[in-house]
């Protein structure tokens, strides 16, 4: 782009024709180098032209006049464009509208699939409730990305108050990094778990590949879209789900889980940074099957945008999503507000909203009341594997990273 | 008709039109011969450039104009676009001043280490923007070298608009410099010496003589900076914290919406951003072409 | 004085750009500094304007010392070769700029602007954009701009250099007219003689940082004092002869010219002949008219009313032609200017002098070549000689390349200070030492070259005949072969020069040698011993004859007494050499005789022998048989 820099050197002498036209026409087509000057001169009356006669001149007079208009339009359109843009950008901050005091804010980071349920349902409901209770309008700032990504950002110092992580393992990372002093989330209801959703398989409409269970995904030729375990919480859940399913199907064989995991990962063709990203990829036409949260499928189904079918494996894990308060970033004056928002998550209205958005509530009654949620034959929890601290160490690191990836030569 | 107008005594020369530049005399192929190569070029460019760009607009309008407007009307998208525009303006204005100053110092002053400094200021163009973001975080972030010192005073440039501005200033700095410095280098020393003998101080010379001569390139550089700032992603995504309604720029919004599967929302803003970029690009092209052919 | 320049010196690195330049320009005068590019004239102008700071010296404008003032405070008007009009301003804004800075009111500015536009011949163009004007018009704007705030002096740096010939002439006339009207003190720099002649009240000639000569144009052309002025301005031929008994003699030519008294006996005489001073005819000139002789027309060119004729005269003489056209070994080539109508035969035309002019004898000057290492004796001897001869000393350092030049320059400057030769001007060149020394000598017209014995790399020197090879510096060998002036090789430690031994070998070149010896011995008050080598062994020195008794004549006529006289009869080189070195002397003068360019004489073996075994300074005097 440096080629756009303009050498000033090209000072051309006026041509014979121009010399006869006098000052007016010359200035119109003058070099870009006195561009800004133009803006000044536009409104002003120009010097009278030298009106010497000559046929040649009549013709060129029109030309230069046209040129002038064109130049005028060009200059003014550029000005208007830039001015308009500036006005547009500043609009909300202009002192035209009466402005309330700057509202208090809570910064909330959530893992990817929470986006809609939080910003469209839970937040407005809480803001309404808070206003009803205290008369104060508050701003809820949010950001959504893969659970690992947001954990990293929180560690880097994003001034977040509350974060809803896809898995407890990420919460432990926050403790390790010193962002959260102890396992505070354990004091919250349900050990900090806000909602659940099982890991399922999403297949193309009509299930053309006849996929019924995780074991089918290990068949040669399957093309699987999977979130990336480095950044996505869902992916970590999925690995435990796949491993667990294998292990529970054949408890006698200590390597059964590893074999199933290897079989599935041999067929992974795309990894996205988050569960949401993986679903977008699947939507764009990648792969035969997508391993993701049930919520992903259900929510699209509810919107009528679902381009696939959900296959429930015989055994799978119920993911649990942990709410962590980053107390380091919460000032004393905000404490009550943040705590209220946190406890609001477990309130009946909020839980119903999660259910409406495809999450299985921690309140079993709410789930059973809803027929959308299919029964899973053999569900298991992370607790069955010794909790995330152990599962992360033994399954994700010990089996997937150390053995499966090695086997696949990655 | 009448005798040619008498010449003023000073007008001793009105040279005829200069001969066409050598480039104009290069052989140019006419239509029948050019058909083949042009077709090939278009066919190559089609999937590379043209169709992806078109796809953005197609997707943006797939849901009809109402859906397009609705996607643009959300509070988040409006904020993201406004925030981007404001940051771009701020970046362009600050870098116009900073870049011009840097170009002036690098071009007009002789000091040891000048060559090295010259390289360093152009470095951002070569560094991946993601690296710029990380390095800013490692310097200014709460756990960074300077950021950790600022932290106790409640100053936190990262994950705030200031952080985004810093990143954009960093990334776009060379564009301003690249636009102004060559011109300044070519400006003969006598130009400023003339002002000095006439009696202008260094500052007056800069203000009345040097700066006006640079006006065009400062404007071009600022526009270029503006355009780059509008589209900056790699560094912004890291230093902004991607906070909706606080630090989310338009490209970040597009990416977040894409990630979230809201293709319509992403494409609507993408289409607006693309259109804006086109306009600015044509403006630049037009300006630079005018500069090349003053008459 | 409106502009007073006193002893201004400026160096860029080791390069001396301005060398003690002094000049006064009277109020209202239009003074032109004329010189080739690189002569320092533009730097001089920039120093006056304050754009370049001098290392030493003083600048006064209107009797006010401005040496340390910034350009803004000097109130000069400066016009650059490249116009440098402010391109974003109109013509009017350009002119008014200086007035605006001085807070002159708008109406006054406009009045002054219109006045100046009329003056420079651009009426009504005030609102025109300056860069839209032609080059000539831009330069007019630049002049008006420089005059607007009524500066004390107007300085113009090659103002017409970038314009084509026709416009240049017009603008020149305009400038002269403007000057006639405003009478503003003006200093203009140009390399164009015609421009200088047409514009200048007075012209100053600059060469390699020095202001060589000042005068009205006609004076400088017709009666230059220096060789540089004679050769730089116009064309012509300069012949070199020497003074003898009130006459200038040009050996090999058939004439002697009466010449002013008070000239030092034996000193060089430079005769300038302009083409229009020559008379060319088919018939021999009347007796008494000095004639160069007959020659052949080798070239003619038509130049309007006049015709330029180039004639080659078959002269081998001591006459040396100092300026173009170059004379080759075939003889002397001169240009003459005659009416176009005159018809000439192609051969045997007579060339006669109609008018002539003698140049002033150049000030005595010594050239010392220094290596920047080794003994400093050459510098110390040069210091003594300079004091005794009242000569200027130039110290020359020859570096391998430009990069090394600065370093070497600093080293030599240190050595100069140590040797008490700080007054000597230091010059740097790079390339082959011998060639650079010869070039420098030719440009400075130094009368003697002083150097140590080991200047440059060693070379095995072989004389024209089979003699044992000697270890002598290659540079000295080259100088021996090519130098036109005496070369003093300072061997051994510094010693006060009290006794001079002059070695004559037969009568070969004796006259020239004795003349040179006299010119050295008299001002220094040296006692002279004359050593006459009898070349008995003709096998060693072929072709030398017995000395004539009149050999010491030049010494006596110069008033130098001969203390003693020795005669050495030797059978071979060794004997000859040891005989010479036995004599008590601080300096030994020996001749080198040349038949033609680079053709060394028969005594060279002795000279090289002496050089390689001598323990004291040796002066080598080139002479002709």
Describe the structure.
The complex is a heterotrimer of chains A (410), B (295) and C (625). With 410 residues, chain A is an alpha/beta fold. Chain A is 48% helix and 16% strand. In chain B, helix 3 runs antiparallel to helix 9 (202-231) and helix 7 packs across helix 9 (202-231). The radius of gyration of chain B is 25 Å and the shape is globular. Chains A and B meet through helix 1, helix 3, helix 4, helix 5 and strand 2 of A and helix 3, helix 7, helix 9, helix 11 and helix 12 of B.
- Mean pLDDT across all residues of chain A, rounded? 80
- Detail the poorly predicted runs of chain B: 1-24
**How much of the residues of chain B is beta strand, in percent?**
under 5%
According to DSSP, the number of beta strands of chain B is 0
**Any idea what the shape of chain B is?**
globular
Helix content of chain A: 40-55%
The rounded Rg of chain A comes to 32 Å
How far apart the termini of chain B lie comes to 28 Å
Task: Tell me the radius of gyration of chain B.
Answer: 25 Å
Backbone shape of chain A? globular
Largest sheet of chain A: 11 strands, mixed
Please supply descriptive tags for the structure shown above.
heterotrimer; A: 410 residues; alpha/beta; 11-stranded mixed sheet; 16 helices; globular; disordered N terminus; C: 625 residues; 6-stranded mixed sheet; 34 strands
